[in-house]
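INFO  loader      accepted 1 record
INFO  loader      residues=304
INFO  predictor   begin
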Amino acid sequence: MDLRKLEMLVAVVDAGSYSKAGERLNVSHSAIHRQIRLLENEFAERILVRTGRCVKLTNTGEILLDLSRRLEQEVAAAERQICERTQLRSGRLRIGTGTTMLVFFLPRVLDLLRKEYPGVEVQVMTGTADNVLEGIQARKLDVGVILASRAPEPPPDVPFVSEVLYREELVVAVGKTHPLAKQKTVSLERLIEYPFITQAKTSHVRRVMERICADAGLIPKISMELENEEAMEAMIAINMGVALLSRRRAISDRVHYLRIAGRRIYCDVNLVFSKSAYIPRAVQEFSRLCRGCCPGAIPNATQA
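INFO  predictor   done
INFO  writer      dumping tokens
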């Protein structure tokens, strides 16, 4: 059985007759009829039967048609993959990330991606690490750049590949006129005297903050739960509370940052994508550019 015979079978079924299939494939209808007959001889079964001017599939024909369509899809997918390996002229890349990475890390990466592959359409969604992983698992996103704690290699049933790109320091941010604004460090016991501004419970930074307090047997007072760091920074600036933010976000003329006494807190920024035998070329190139744009490594620090 060869692919050409199956291609002719699909053409006859789609066109409804041998003559119309011949026009579509630019061959004589008798040649198509002969190939279908050879296919029937091969299986010793009728594949097509005439009903008036049209043809109809037998049960065997239905099986072969299903096989033919699946093979067409596989061949088309292989052709796309081979084409991608040589050139990336078009396509779409859907990226999930947090606002810190979007503002301070990804602009350079996206600029390079646009210059090297102007035909690739880029879409970006911001959310928590959990949101991004859910989006990748649901195939609504292709790749993510997220904050997450360093973890051992995931078990085989986990559908993600994760790679550490760089590390982000987390600091305490307060308003410029806040009582702590002139300090460089603060004890955790004094810090929790003030209300906290946080993101949702699914936020990695929120989990870090709650874990640090829980390890010390303390309970923070949550006054606001906001969607992103821009909103948090605005509320910190008017002294509505304190927050744990990335240091790069906290280097601002609106807020002052300090550290918790006796510790420095760091989180990993991870590149994540779906575990698969085939990684799309757009994801490969985005990953390459991310690695090339990583900030320098941070030596010996406490991992959150």
